[in-house]
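Protocol step 4 of 6: structure prediction from sequence.
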Amino acid sequence: MKSIKQMIAAAAVSTVAFTAFATTASDSGVTVRYGDLNLQNEAGAEVLYRRLESAVRHVCGATHVRQPIGVRQAREECVRQKLDMAVQAVDSELVTRIHQS
């Protein structure tokens, strides 16, 4: 069965801001399964992209209105970087196109 292993590592951001949700590549990850999807059509690619987004947001941590702006920005940078990595690892033209749109 196909899967992508998303490993979370501290991004190039402020250590203080990132502390709220930082994990290391050696202790955290999420497997996103997509063997049930046809990545040759738009519908399957869309479903996988939503799964990837959800997994990345989960591992990068929750954001709250009361968090300092630096923490929220660091989380969004984590999400952006890890989603970029996940899409690249899937290596699907349709998933990449969805990600870039």
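Step 5 (inspection) to follow. Residues 5-27 have pLDDT under 50 and may be disordered.
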